[in-house]
Amino acid sequence: MGMFGAKGSGDTSGYGRLVVRRAPLVSSARPYGGPDGQGAPGEFDEVADQLERVLGDDFADAIERVVVDRGEITFHVKRERLVEVMRHLRDDAALRFELSLGVSGVHYPSDAGRELHAVYHLCSITHNRRVRVEVSCPDADPHIPSTVKVYPTHDWHERETYDFFGIVFDGHPALTRIEMPDDWEGHPQRKDYPLGGIPVEYRGAEIPSPDQRRSYA
């Protein structure tokens, strides 16, 4: 239960009693459409078709699912195939996602065996398109291949994701903390990280202790 009686939703603050329920994401049906909708085949289908062509028979093994949600397409990639897929997305003339906008981490404690996710935001300047690549790993084995050799700007982004989420990017040239002190314990953006904070008095509300302020179950 979150603050102000909020429970059973993604709204753990309870502010305004907002409730956001999200169904588990599954592979989207064709046509994927484009940023403006899924009514007919569009640029998302073109990207998926071309990626399938360059991967060939390995497409089904490399791509776990394709999700179109809110005008964006995400390719969920097996971690063992991540570097290969990213290289195709960058180098293939019909894809040419030459710009990466960064790497971010996400922690889903209830996603058993896939608790930690790394998310890559790619942009094609050549074709004026955007896609997202997402790869997961378990808490028990928090390793994902580094993509610094494909997108050198991922150097500091992977360090930040390691710092805040504990994802180990294998092959990174210098995977150390980048924002927290070197001797910091834990990874502060994980949802199982203890919350701190300053007690604030509210009229008509009791503020729970830090370890009770959020529930992600």
Automatic annotation (TrEMBL):
The record's section on InterPro entries has: NADH_DH_suC, NADH_quin_OxRdtase_su_C/D-like, NADH_UbQ_OxRdtase_30kDa_su
Which EC numbers does the record give? 7.1.1.-
Q: Which residues cross the membrane?
A: none
* Bilayer disposition of the protein: Peripheral membrane protein
Q: Which domain of life is it from?
A: Bacteria
- The residue ranges of the NADH:ubiquinone oxidoreductase 30kDa subunit domain are 76-197
Q: What class of enzyme is it?
A: translocase
This molecule's function is given as: NDH-1 shuttles electrons from NADH, via FMN and iron-sulfur (Fe-S) centers, to quinones in the respiratory chain. The immediate electron acceptor for the enzyme in this species is believed to be a menaquinone. Couples the redox reaction to proton translocation (for every two electrons transferred, four hydrogen ions are translocated across the cytoplasmic membrane), and thus conserves the redox energy in a proton gradient.
The entry's family comment says:
Belongs to the complex I 30 kDa subunit family.
- How does this chain assemble? NDH-1 is composed of 14 different subunits. Subunits NuoB, C, D, E, F, and G constitute the peripheral sector of the complex.
Cite the PANTHER family for this sequence: NADH DEHYDROGENASE [UBIQUINONE] IRON-SULFUR PROTEIN 3, MITOCHONDRIAL, NADH DEHYDROGENASE UBIQUINONE IRON-SULFUR PROTEIN 3
The protein's name is NADH-quinone oxidoreductase subunit C
Q: Which organism is it from?
A: Bailinhaonella thermotolerans
